[in-house]
Structures are given as C-alpha cells and as structure tokens.
Write a structure and sequence with these properties.
Order of helices and strands: EEEEEEEEEEE
Structural class: mainly beta
Strand content: over 45%
Radius of gyration: 15 Å
Helix content: under 10%
Distance between the termini: 30 Å
Number of domains: 1
Shape: globular
Number of strands: 11
Number of helices: 0
Largest sheet: 6 strands, mixed
Length: 150
C-alpha cells in the first residue's frame, strides 16, 4: 500500500488521506485501488451509474493511473470516475498523445462509499496495449483529482 500526497497548491481540507494498492494478475491484468479517508460529504463524488467511456473525466473527481514499460517513453493514462465512467489515452512521450483508440475491454470498476471513506477499484486488462507484455517491467504512477463542494 502506498500513500498519495496532496499537491501543495490544491489542498482539500475534507481529505485526510488517500492510499493506493496495486495487484498484478496473470493475463496481464492490473487491479488499482484508491482508498480515501475524510469528510466525504464535503466532496463532489458523482453517483455510480454505469461503466462507459467518456472523455474529460480529469476535470472532476476521478482516479488516474499512468502505466508504461519501465525503459520506454511511451505510456498510457487511464481515468476512472466514481460514476463508472472511464477513459484511456496513449502518449508517445510526456504529454505528447491523445485518446487511445483500440479494442480494449472496459475496465471493471467498483465503488464503495462510507460516512468517512470512499474506495474505487478498477480492474484493467493490459494485454491489448502495445509495449505492455507479461515479461516487461512496468512503471506506474497513480493520482487522484478531488473536487470539493466549495
């Protein structure tokens, strides 16, 4: 488990902590889990609706995963919303890319919300992504965008 750190310019007082967990499965399949603790009632967390692909999720509360082969500049960005919406992007280099258009299966997204906690898990199949093979070491970066009610 790893702790995500807040950006000093965008402090959200309602959030006490955000932890993350990565689980690697054969396939290759990656499960990414984000666990937020704090005053959830002060956050803009959309209700779960259905799993569907939508662009621009990073403008509101969402969880992000950046995945690439360890020794390669190319990487993929995945966005997961508590609503069940998701998106994927492909980059040739840092911020040099656009929407990923491929035959990727939809991620399986589950959301749990409590009085003082919120958890989102996404199961991502990686075998359809060029450059991501079972024997390749990955570099993974995780982040969240948290929108409060202010």
């Amino acid at each position: 488990m790893a702790t995500l750190h807040r950006h000093p310019d965008t402090v959200c007082r309602a959030v006490e902590s955000i932890n993350s967990l990565l689980l690697w499965h054969k396939g290759p399949v990656l499960t990414v889990t984000y666990m937020l603790n704090g005053n959830v009632d002060l956050l803009r967390i959309p209700p779960y609706e259905s799993v569907r692909r939508v662009d621009g999720l990073w403008r509101h509360t969402c969880c992000e995963a950046f995945i690439g082969a360890k020794d390669d500049f190319e990487y993929y960005e995945f966005n997961f919303s508590p609503s069940g919406e998701w998106s994927a992007y492909s980059f040739r280099d840092y911020r040099d890319g656009g929407p990923y258009v491929g035959d990727e299966p939809e991620p399986k997204i589950t959301v749990e919300r409590g009085a003082a906690s919120f958890e989102l898990s996404a199961v991502i199949r990686l075998d359809h992504l060029p450059g991501i093979q079972p024997d390749v070491r990955l570099r993974v970066g995780l982040s969240t965008v948290i929108e409060d009610l202010d």
